[in-house]
């Protein structure tokens, strides 16, 4: 909640901006510091939103509001599109704070996030100044599962790259530099996600009718390295998991059924070398913000062992 409120809204006066300095005073007790932060958080707004309609232009849909540029100029109201196409003050800030995900976030909030990305991708033609790191990962993060959103994003990004590539394969966007590499994380997000507390293989890519794809050794939350592949018909396979850490260490691996079946139906984990079946696979219901449930699978894995997730029929 602290990250949500601090990252998404920069319209805070000196009292809030100095809260950390106050709380770091060596003469203050823990209770006094808690009171400062509690008071600060109570005055911070939730996700600020605004109608995308600046001077009669825009989509007329609700998007995340930009903070005013100068927090001390007296004009504290959020405004739409004061930096159209440069969404560093919008969803690009929300994406790394990990507060939005397609499984646990409310549909209302996801709609605002998708409106936001659509508006700014349109304004920037998928090429915001200062780098693809600003829009590609954030757009991938809200791509809808079991749709063509992922493939459509990659197609639009390909066109933007072709338009802006200059010598030596460098995309010239009028600003930015090495941060353009950050756009690649958008591809990772389409292939595997773990920021909502569980791993989702191919959440928004490979839903059939495409070229398929694969990845190897991507790191997900918890210190796991995962690999997988999906064919042009959307069939998932080749799923591998390895926990890095001290040999013998045990850690819970949480994931969604990657084969499109209910709960843990059709899912089995095996040790690759011995083909031994892993016991203890459990199913747990995770509540989302709309009151629904997401079925998450859990199993304890051992560091240094290579596992595969197989589809059994």
Helices, strands, pairings?
Elements: H1 2-8, H2 14-17, H3 19-23, H4 30-42, E1 49-51, E2 62-64, H5 91-97, H6 107-124, H7 136-141, H8 149-164, H9 184-191, E3 192-193, E4 200-201, E5 213-220, E6 224-230, E7 236-243, E8 250-255, E9 267-271, E10 282-287, E11 293-302, E12 306-311
Antiparallel strand pairs: 1-2, 3-4, 5-6, 6-7, 7-12, 8-11, 9-12, 10-11
Helix pairs in contact: 1-5
| Structural class category | alpha+beta
What's the Cα radius of gyration? 22 Å
Give the strand line-up of the largest sheet: 5-6-7-12-9
Shape: globular
- Residue fraction in strands: 15-25%
Distance between the termini: 42 Å
What is the string of SSEs from the N terminus onward?
Answer: HHHHEEHHHHHEEEEEEEEEE
Number of distinct beta strands:
12
Largest sheet: 5 strands, antiparallel
Helical region count?
9
Indicate the low-confidence ranges by residue numbers: 1-15, 68-80, 82-89
Mean pLDDT score: 82
Percent in helix: 25-40%
What is the compact description of this entry?
This protein is 27% helix and 21% strand. The protein has 9 helices and 12 strands. The protein is globular, with a radius of gyration of 22 Å.
Structure description:
- 27% of the residues lie in helices and 21% in strands.
- The model is unreliable at 1-15, 68-80 and 82-89 (pLDDT under 50).
- It contains 9 helices and 12 strands.
- The chain starts with a helix and ends with a strand.
- It has helices at residues 2-8, 14-17, 19-23, 30-42, 91-97, 107-124, 136-141, 149-164, 184-191; strands spanning 49-51, 62-64, 192-193, 200-201, 213-220, 224-230, 236-243, 250-255, 267-271, 282-287, 293-302, 306-311.
- The chain is globular.
- The strands form 4 sheets. Strands 5-6-7-12-9 form a 5-stranded antiparallel β-sheet, with no helix packed on it. Strands 8-11-10 form a 3-stranded antiparallel β-sheet, with no helix packed on it. A two-stranded antiparallel ribbon has the order 1-2.
- With 313 residues, it is of the alpha+beta class.
- Strand 6 and strand 7 form a beta hairpin.
- The longest helix has 18 residues, at 107-124.
- Helix 1 runs antiparallel to helix 5.
